[in-house]
Amino acid sequence: MSLSFAILTVSDRSFAGQREDRSGPALARAVAERGWTVVETDLVPDDIEAIRSALLAWSRRPDIAVILTTGGTGFGPRDVTPEATRQVIQREAPGLAEAMRAASLRITPHAMLSRAVAGIRGRTLIVNLPGSPKAAVENFAVIAPVLPHAVQLLRGDAAAEQGHRTAA
Known about the structure:
Blueprint: E1 4-10, H1 12-15, H2 23-33, E2 37-44, H3 48-59, E3 66-70, H4 81-88, E4 91-92, H5 94-105, E5 118-121, E6 124-129, H6 133-143, H7 147-154
Parallel strand pairs: 1-2, 1-3, 3-6
Antiparallel strand pairs: 4-5, 5-6
């Protein structure tokens, strides 16, 4: 199944030109390696309204199935990506964030400091990923296997039911 993505990097320093955005491009490569398409990317500061505005605009677009954010999910005073995401989503998808944290805990105890959330707005899935390029790609790899089925379900695709097992 072909999937289309938008990637939003959230970083004050990258937005100000003080640091190169490496996470957004790393995620774009990870998406492309799976044969999927990135149709939009952007870079915003750690600002609730800027994040919220991008998420709302992209979630209205029928050509974007999954929005990945990178950055702003930690304990820093300006880390507000989860708060902005919660203002946009209509339903949470906690299993995705739980799976990413569980897998990351096998790599670093700092994973328990992630406040990342995932959820649904309309027919679009929104997932917060860490700001580190390495961690963003590792977390994406955790959820990537279920994304085609998740999008099938969100889009009401009749083939989605074929992925469900029946009790014996």
